[in-house]
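ok, trying the design again with the full structure, not the truncated one.
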């Protein structure tokens, strides 16, 4: 087992990884930007190294600085968390070349699955159902041709896309030129490549994803699904596990398909296969080759610590259990709480003057915030994840309502009021929602004002 792990991230996920290491008797190295000198992940780690100025490009994305920090402190492994360099195959390769273990899949697997076009191809070969789609699009005319083959509506996506960026829908020939041009421009600004492709646009799907764990010896288990259909701008807001839309046999069916596919691909470490689910059918979207923000709801229901498993697998340990050993208990829901204006969604960095997190049975709060902490303006606006777990979905909803009421964050605006509003809507209470529900609800509400 590793003796020292460097955590190449910040915020709540850096703390999350530190906690897993601590419980495994592994020492931790935090890295931080100049703006994060007072951050909680820096305070808790055994050692800390400043890797550059505030801008992410100069610090948390600065590969040589991070690898130098690992070499200077003698870390055996690097955990990348999510975001930043977590899906950067070149970084994984550099880390390994320096004799340090990258906690994640191999660079080759990351390249295959990180590109949406090659990932779709691999998924088809491995027996996963996918949406009808095109190869890389070369021109507006080419896009039009494919839109006719697939049938409107279609969605044009960046092959290197992520975070909901670089995606544009078109409902007719009139919209295709703009969708193509905009998707390419957005891709060019945000990603290494501006190559785009097209998929059939599903009109009322749910977003359901499967968490898997795979060791280096071909053993694969799935830890059930997460329903992440409550979204704003293609970004997840609330997630729950299990999905209110699936029954036990549907779960087993997609679970078996996914396990087979992962075995065929030869993937190792933790990963998530994202699907659209519409009219009883699954369509593979993409695979995330890293820890997901919403992993705690799966941990609550499966009782498995996904970060510890990532570390164990990377160190060469076998899973040591089979699918039949995994039991799912109860229901879990996560709210992503952002320092944002809940009406306009404008980021709201600043000093936290008072902080009181909810507690009690079945409550987990993952956050880097403490009273007196100043949220820097340079990074993602998520400041806390509230996770509730209870025996039934109803009990989890009651617990979530209670926990949101108890949460006190003063000094900055947060999206807590928005969460309170969402969870009191009948569609949410009944579990009857799809990926468009939140946007439609917000638009309706706006009009009524
Ligand atoms: P990213 O990598 O940017 O997160 P994804 O491919 O995972 O992009 O898609 C993110 C979200 O965009 C999905 O959860 C869904 O809301 C929407 N989306 C993506 N593809 C489709 C599609 N073919 N039909 C309908 N919605 C889609």
């Amino acid at each position: 087992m590793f003796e020292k792990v460097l955590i190449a991230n910040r915020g709540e996920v850096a703390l999350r990884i530190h906690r897993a290491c601590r419980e495994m008797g592994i020492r931790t190295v935090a890295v931080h930007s100049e703006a994060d000198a007072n951050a909680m992940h820096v305070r808790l780690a055994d050692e800390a190294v400043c890797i550059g100025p505030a801008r992410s490009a100069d610090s948390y994305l600065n590969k040589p600085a991070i690898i130098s920090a690992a070499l200077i402190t003698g870390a055996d492994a690097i955990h990348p968390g999510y975001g930043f360099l977590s899906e950067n195959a070149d970084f994984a390769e550099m880390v390994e070349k320096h004799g340090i273990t990258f906690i994640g899949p191999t660079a080759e697997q990351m390249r295959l699955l990180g590109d949406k076009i090659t990932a779709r191809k691999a998924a088809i070969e491995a027996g996963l159902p996918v949406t009808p789609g095109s190869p890389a699009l070369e021109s507006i005319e080419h896009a039009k041709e494919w839109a006719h083959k697939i049938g409107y509506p279609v969605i044009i996506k960046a092959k290197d896309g992520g975070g909901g960026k670089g995606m544009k829908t078109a409902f007719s020939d009139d919209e295709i030129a703009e969708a193509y041009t905009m998707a390419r421009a957005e891709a060019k600004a945000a990603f290494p490549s501006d190559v785009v492709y097209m998929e059939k646009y599903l009109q009322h799907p749910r977003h359901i994803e499967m968490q898997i764990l795979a060791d280096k010896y071909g053993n694969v288990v799935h830890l059930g699904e997460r329903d992440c259909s409550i979204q704003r701008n293609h970004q997840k807001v609330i997630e729950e596990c299990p999905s209110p839309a699936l029954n036990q046999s549907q779960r087993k069916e997609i679970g078996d398909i996914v396990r087979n596919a992962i075995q065929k691909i030869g993937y190792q470490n933790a990963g998530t296969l994202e699907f659209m689910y519409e009219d009883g059918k699954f369509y593979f979207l993409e695979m995330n080759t890293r820890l997901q923000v919403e992993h705690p709801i799966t941990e609550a229901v499966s009782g498995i610590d996904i970060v510890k498993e990532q570390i164990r697998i990377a160190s060469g340990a076998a899973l040591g259990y089979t699918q039949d050993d995994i039991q799912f208990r109860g229901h879990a829901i996560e709210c992503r709480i952002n320092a944002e204006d809940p009406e306009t969604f404008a980021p709201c960095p600043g000093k936290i003057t008072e902080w009181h997190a909810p507690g009690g049975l079945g409550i987990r709060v993952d956050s880097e915030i403490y009273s007196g902490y100043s949220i820097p303006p340079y990074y993602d606006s998520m400041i806390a994840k509230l996770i509730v777990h209870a025996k039934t979905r109803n009990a989890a909803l009651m617990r979530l309502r209670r926990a949101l009421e108890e949460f006190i964050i003063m000094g900055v605006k947060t999206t807590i009021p928005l969460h309170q509003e969402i969870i009191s809507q009948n569609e949410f209470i009944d579990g009857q929602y799809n990926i468009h529900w939140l946007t439609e609800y917000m638009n309706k509400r706006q009009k009524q004002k």
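Keeping the full-length input from now on. The CA atoms of residues 160 and 193 lie 7 Å apart.
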